[in-house]
Amino acid sequence: MGILEDVLLNARSAVDTVGKKAGQVIDISKLRIAAADLKSEISRKYQILGRVAYEESVSGKDYSVNKAELIQKIGELKNDLDSVMELIASSGNKIKCAACGAYNSKKAVFCNKCGEKLDTAEDEHMPTDEMIDFTEDNFEDDDLL
Ligand SMILES: [Zn+2]
Fold first, then answer.
1. Residue 110 domain boundaries
2. Are residues 117 and 65 part of one domain?
3. Are 81 and 102 found together in one domain?
4. How far from each other are the two terminal CA atoms of the chain, in whole angstroms?
């Protein structure tokens, strides 16, 4: 089971690395890589579990301990995946400052760290309606000047 342990440790450290950054800057691309790694690890575990069940059936030996271990590890990986998906969801509601890289609230106009004007147009998750409203506000300000 040495290989399985190594893989689990790798997945764990990926989540830990991401978690430590959560208070500061969340790198969403790293989160997505971690989520993809966890997903492929879970499906690999399912394959091993299927093979263990097959071997057990063919050989008539009792592999219930191995199966229980695999099922527990799949559960742990799923928990890890859940926390990564949560981080992805929460960072999806943020706008990244182009100047300093800090994540700000979607509704923020200026970066709360460096004060740079946030380019909301760059946020792919930004609803179109809000983008239009924002632009119209700017035009109105210009007209007054
Ligand atoms: Zn900034």
1. 95-145
2. no
3. no
4. 71
Same domain as 16, residue 61: yes
Do 31 and 59 reside in the same domain of the chain? Answer: yes
Residues with CB under 5 A from ligand 1 (ion): 97, 99-100, 102, 111, 113-114, 116
Residues 48 and 8 in one domain: yes
Same domain? For 87 and 123 the reply is: no
C-alpha–C-alpha distance, residues 105 and 52, integer Å: 48
**Centroid of chain to Cα 9:** 18
State the distance from the centre of ligand 1 to the C-alpha of 33, rounded, in angstroms.
25
Q: Is 62 helix (H, G, I), strand (E, B) or coil?
A: coil
**pLDDT tens digits along 87-141:** 877 777 777 788 998 878 778 889 989 999 987 654 444 444 444 444 444 444 4
Distance 57 CA to ligand 1 centre (A): 60
Say whether both 63 and 102 belong to one domain.
no
Question: Do residues 95 and 118 touch, judged by C-beta distance below 8 A?
Answer: yes
The rounded Å distance from CA 94 to ligand 1 centre is 12
**Per-residue pLDDT for 23 more than 70?**
no
- Alpha carbon of 29 to ligand 1 centroid (Å): 19
